[in-house]
Amino acid sequence: MIGKLTGTLLEKNPPEVLVDCGGVGYEVQVPMSTFYNLPATGSKVALLTHFVVREDAQLLFGFGTARERQTFRELIKITGIGPRMALAVLSGMSVDDLADAVSQQEAGRLVKVPGIGKKTAERLLLELKGKIGADTGAQSLFAHNNDQNDILQALMALGYSDKEASAALKKLPPDVGVSEGIKLALKALTK
């Protein structure tokens, strides 16, 4: 219902901010990653939002980037993860860190977030696999190897999806060069 707020930042009380939009003040809960990037009070601010209506409350959650909001939405789809827990996850780690943890199936990184136990972390990893790691973390997976990153970008420029390009990269030798890697990946994709 409310997708974006643009207005004047009146108050900053973590994790809540107050945004004045044309004389109406909206209380918005934000993850700490967004909170740290907010301008000073009295400045103009724009937040992408997610509106939650419950039996006992109407809550507005704000995000600095579309990736943060999309990750929040993926998190709250998981059974047992409510908006506050999703906010805690995004406050405890960046979207890239979460995507990397999901891709590598590292529950230990999620357990460090307050309120996340071992079972919840394992459930998060299981449910987010293929949703967050493939979509938002495909580039961070291969950031350690520039050649593989270049191959990934070339395949995506040729019209292949992140998922297809990532699958083709997994079949390549780890020390392959860019031009040879593109040739081998294209062969794998056309089979």
Binned, the helix content reads 40-55%
Distance between the termini: 45 Å
Structural class: alpha+beta
> What is the molecular shape?
elongated
What oligomeric state best describes the polypeptide chains here? single chain
Q: Give the radius of gyration.
A: 20 Å
Mean pLDDT: 86
Poorly predicted spans: 134-144
SS element count, helices: 10
Strands side by side in the biggest sheet: 3-2-1-4-5
Q: Beta-strand level of the residues, as a percent range?
A: 15-25%
**Total number of strands:** 5
Element string (H = helix, E = strand):
EEEHEEHHHHHHHHH
Protein name: Holliday junction branch migration complex subunit RuvA
GO molecular function: DNA helicase activity; hydrolase activity
Main location: cytoplasm
Keywords: Cytoplasm, DNA damage, DNA recombination, DNA repair, DNA-binding, Hydrolase
Using brief descriptors, characterize the structure shown.
DNA repair, alpha+beta, 191 residues, five-stranded antiparallel beta sheet, elongated
What does this entry show, briefly?
It is built from ten helices and five strands; from the N terminus they run βββαββααααααααα.
What does this structure look like?
Helices cover 47% and strands 20% of the residues. It has 191 residues and is α+β, with helices and mostly antiparallel strands. A five-stranded antiparallel β-sheet has the order 3-2-1-4-5, with helices on one face. A hairpin with a 2-residue loop joins β1 (4-13) and β2 (16-21). α2 (66-76) packs across α3 and α9 crosses α10. The chain starts with a strand and ends with a helix. Mean pLDDT is 86; it is low at 134-144. Its main location: cytoplasm. Belongs to the RuvA family. Residues 1-64 are annotated as: Domain I.
